Amino acid sequence: MTKKVATASRTKVINPVSRESTSGAGGHEHCCEHLMCSIPASEADELVEQLVENLKPLNMRRTRGLVALLMEMAIHHHPMTLLELGAKPNLSKLDQATIYRLMMKLEEAEIVRRFSFRGRSTHFQLLVRGHQHDYLICKSCEKITSVEVKLPLDGLQRSVTVSTGWHEIQAELEFYGICPACVKK
Questions:
Q1: pTM of the shown model
Q2: Hey, CA dihedral for 22, 16, 96, 134, is it positive or negative?
Q3: Residue spans per domain, the chain
């Protein structure tokens, strides 16, 4: 169910597929070959339909471009630049300006997360409830790899909320180093 929250400047949709924990790791597996996450197509379809419905209060119409963008971001659940998204076959008919405008609206609605890895191109990733990623970033080739880190961040985030009064605390880990391929060069 969509939850609207009024703020001083706008109304945002609380993404029901972000932040709160669900069973397991979001109900899907990480691809072992590249440690990049992918969501099965059937789960991605359901997620996209839910997101499109949740965007209606923000006057975002269901368009082929919006659905295609959300589907690509769901199926390929890892940080991507606008250029990488535009190169996807299902998005090739959209111009970069359209992808940019959609992404800005999705970011404002807190449906996507923006990454700016130490001066690199801006990357975006779809937020999925109970499914947070931490990343290894190669300082040489700039490859981004998802890494599973077992830390008790939920307890730490609750502790920070209690001690500071801040809410919706999120923690992200980014590790920088040299990937195995670059070490071999």
A1: 0.69
A2: negative
A3: 3-131
Decide if 82 contacts 91 (C-beta within 8 A). no
- Give, in words, the CATH class of 3-131: mainly alpha
CA pair distance 129, 157, nearest whole angstrom: 16
pLDDT digits (tens, 9 = 90+) for 30-65: 443 344 566 778 888 999 999 999 999 999 999 999
Return d(Cα 106, Cα 56) in angstroms, integer: 12
Looking at residue 139, what DSSP letter applies? T
* CA 125/CA 114 separation, integer angstroms: 7
Those residues with Cβ within 8 angstroms of residue 65's Cβ, 6 or more apart along the chain or in another chain: 91, 94, 98, 99, 102
Q: How many residues does the chain have?
A: 185
